[in-house]
Amino acid sequence: MTDKPTFHAYSVRKYKKQDGAEDAMWSRIGAAFAHKDAKGYDVVLDAVPLDGRISLREPKEPSAG
């Protein structure tokens, strides 16, 4: 397992705004770390999504400024 996560884990919940438009709220709930042999991942969760859906996304680079 590496020190930096390969992916961040998010719970994504869709909702309707007051104007009727649909939007989504992303809550980071954990991370996925690549195995040293690059053949798998360990997923570490701090929370479990209510709807059972987890989205894995590559971490964004911190923006300068």
Explain what the structure shows:
There is one protein chain. This protein has one domain. It has no helices and 4 strands. The model has no long low-confidence stretch (mean pLDDT 91). With 65 residues, the chain is mostly beta strands. Helices cover 0% and strands 48% of the residues. A hairpin with a 6-residue loop joins strand 2 (22-34) and strand 3. It has a 4-stranded antiparallel sheet, with no helix packed on it.
Tally of individual helices: 0
What is the count of β-strands?
Answer: 4
Strand line-up in the sheet with most strands: 3-2-1-4
Q: How many domains, in number, for the residues? A: 1
What fraction of the residues are assigned to beta strands by DSSP?
Answer: over 45%
Shape descriptor: extended
What's the N-to-C terminus distance?
31 Å
Provide the succession of SSEs: EEEE
The largest sheet is: 4 strands, antiparallel
Query: Helix share of residues?
Result: under 10%
Mean pLDDT: 91
Radius of gyration: 15 Å
Structural class: mainly beta
Are there runs of 5+ residues with pLDDT below 50, and where?
none
Write a short abstract of this structure.
This protein is mainly beta.
Task: Outline the secondary-structure elements.
Elements: E1 7-16, E2 22-34, E3 41-45, E4 55-57
Task: Considering the chains and any ligands shown, give keywords for the structure.
65 residues; mainly beta; 0% helix; 48% strand; extended
